[in-house]
Structure formats: structure tokens, C-alpha cells
Design a protein that fits this description.
Structural class: alpha/beta
Strand content: 15-25%
Largest sheet: 8 strands, mixed
CATH topology of the largest domain: Rossmann fold
Radius of gyration: 18 Å
CATH superfamily of the largest domain: Alpha/Beta hydrolase fold, catalytic domain
Order of helices and strands: EEEEHEHEHHHHHHHEHEH
């Protein structure tokens, strides 16, 4: 099983204003003269972490990571204005041009797979290849799985805790109800809603869940994550149609790709990965038989590192 590469520090970090409101945190690690790769993190709103550098051989890859609008070290934290899928796609292009990169490998997981697809389908000439994990296509059926009538059947105890602070009427439109709480003027309401939202999602993300308490200093980022997720989900991920990413997958037909999916992924069920594979049959389709959604499960890690190693001969 290919392990993660050793921990490394960025050789460069900087801030890039992308509008009058938003400024992004960006870091580069690995080989400054290496093959470029852009990393799209999940959420939306989760931010980057040191582990994300470790999917890539630092002697070969020039790894570009950035906190998307409103999250991580980008500012303002939790900001929903000027924060759409297409703003983020445009941001990636700004970063590419700022760094003087012509083409790069596109890598993303969960929401990062959504954004990676949106970027590569908009700018296919800029992608040397695509590696995606835990496929989310932004469709209504996927949101309904999580917030209406799917996940609650698999995680009934967690579901009951998730909806405990909602009225019967609010439970008929859960994303809208949570969005209202997460944008409340009451700081305590925002805090409680965010912690409940993230706890439910985190519990469903691993094949074997691990309860991890939230440190007080991390609460602002937890609130930002939940706010941004609810913002995107309430607005259909700002896609032009429910099946836009599948319809536009034809633009990827000449780009080598790998789709990695945990068989028991409860957050982004296998159906979406299969639908993407049908729309993009040239991509290698890898189902990890003993994994859920999280990128740090052993089988998922192994498949992702294997993919980036394989791309060393292709880019």
C-alpha cells in the first residue's frame, strides 16, 4: 500500500486579493520546478490542512493549495457574499496566471471533486489530468439523500441528534432551517447550529466513526464551514442545471483521469461516482471496498497516492 509522503512545510505562502471583499491564502510546497498540481479542498468551506500536501511526491510535484473564499486563512472568514462555484473557478484561474503556470494536474475530493470538475470542464485546456475522490455532483438527489430521506435511515441516532433543535415544520426544509440559524444575528444560535451540522457530517464520513471534540479556538472555522456548506446547498451549488457537471463531462474526454470512491461512502454515495464514470468512461474507476467517505481512510489514501504516482509518467 503506498503510504502518504512525509510531512513537509510550504516553501512559500502568500495572500492574493481576488475581489474588493475576498483575499485568499495560498501555499506552495514540494519542488518549485516540478510538475504543477492544484488541490481543491472539500466542504465547501473546510479549508486546507498539512495532510493535503502529503498525497504528492515532493521531489516531483509543485503543489499549489489554497483556502477557498470564506474559509481557513482566507478572509473574511465565513463570508457568503461573492461566494459561488464560479467565483471559485475564477479564483483558480487567477492563481494559475499569478504563478505563471500553463497547465496543471487537477486534484479534489468531496466538494473538491465538484469544484475540480467545474474548473476542468470550464478550462479543459489547463488540465494535464484529473484525480477526484468521493464524488459530489451538486444534484438535488444528492442533497435529498443527506437531508431528506437517505442518510437518516443509515444513521438514525445521529439523525435524531441533528434535527433535535428543529421544529416539526423546520424538519420539512432542513437546509433552509439550518441556513437561517447559521446566518442568525445570535452568536450562540450560530455556534450551536454549526456544531450540530458538522458533528452529523463528520460522524457519517468514516466507515468507523471517531468522536473528536472541537477545540474552542477552532469554533470560528467550524461556523464558517457549516455556513458556507448551507449557503451552497441551499443554492444548488450555483450550477446552471441539476446535471450540468455530467452533461459537460464530454469536455473531459481527452483528459486522463482517476475516480476514487469508497464503496460505503454515506456522504457522497457510490451512485454519483458511477454516473460520472458513465459520462466520462475514459477515466479510471477505482472503488475501495472497505472505505467510506473520508480521505484519511487507509484504502482511500492508498488509491490517491497511487494515482498521483501514476500521473508522474503522464504529465
Amino acid at each position: 500500500m503506498p503510504p502518504l509522503f512525509p510531512e513537509i512545510e510550504p516553501y512559500r505562502t502568500f495572500r492574493l486579493p481576488v475581489s474588493e471583499l475576498h483575499t485568499l491564502h495560498i501555499e506552495e510546497s514540494g519542488n518549485p520546478d516540478g510538475a504543477p498540481v492544484i488541490f481543491f479542498h472539500g466542504g465547501p468551506g473546510a479549508g486546507i490542512s498539512p495532510m493535503h500536501r502529503r498525497f504528492f511526491d515532493p521531489k516531483f510535484w509543485r503543489v499549489v493549495l489554497f483556502d477557498q473564499r470564506g474559509c481557513g486563512k482566507s478572509t473574511p472568514l465565513g463570508e457568503l457574499r461573492e461566494n459561488t462555484t464560479w467565483d471559485l473557478v475564477a479564483d483558480a484561474e487567477r492563481i494559475r496566471k499569478h504563478l505563471g503556470i500553463e497547465k496543471w494536474l487537477v486534484f479534489g475530493g468531496s466538494w473538491g471533486s465538484t469544484l475540480g470538475l467545474a474548473y476542468a470542464e470550464t478550462h479543459p485546456e489547463r488540465a494535464t489530468g484529473i484525480v477526484l475522490r468521493g464524488i459530489f455532483l451538486g444534484r438535488k438527489l444528492e442533497i435529498d439523500w443527506t437531508f431528506v430521506d437517505g442518510l437518516r435511515r443509515m444513521e438514525p441516532e445521529g439523525w435524531d441528534a441533528f434535527v433535535a433543535n428543529l421544529t416539526p415544520r423546520e424538519r420539512g426544509a432542513i437546509v433552509r432551517a439550518y441556513h437561517r440559524k447559521l446566518t442568525s444575528d445570535d452568536a450562540l444560535v450560530r455556534r450551536e447550529a454549526a456544531l450540530a451540522w458538522n458533528k452529523f457530517e463528520n460522524h457519517a464520513s468514516k466507515l468507523v466513526p471517531v468522536e473528536e471534540p472541537v477545540a474552542e479556538e477552532d469554533v470560528p472555522k467550524e461556523i464558517a464551514l457549516a455556513r458556507i456548506e448551507a449557503h451552497y446547498f441551499l443554492n444548488g451549488s450555483f450550477l446552471k442545471s441539476d446535471d450540468q457537471l455530467l452533461h459537460d463531462a464530454e469536455r473531459l474526454r481527452r483528459i486522463p483521469g482517476v475516480i476514487v470512491q469508497g464503496k460505503y461512502d454515506l456522504v457522497c454515495p457510490l451512485q454519483s461516482a458511477w454516473d460520472l464514470h458513465l459520462a466520462w468512461p475514459e477515466a479510471q474507476y477505482v472503488v475501495v471496498p472497505d472505505a467510506g467517505h473520508s480521505a484519511d481512510e487507509p484504502g482511500i489514501l492508498s488509491a490517491l497516492v497511487a494515482a498521483t504516482e501514476d500521473f508522474k509518467t503522464k504529465v
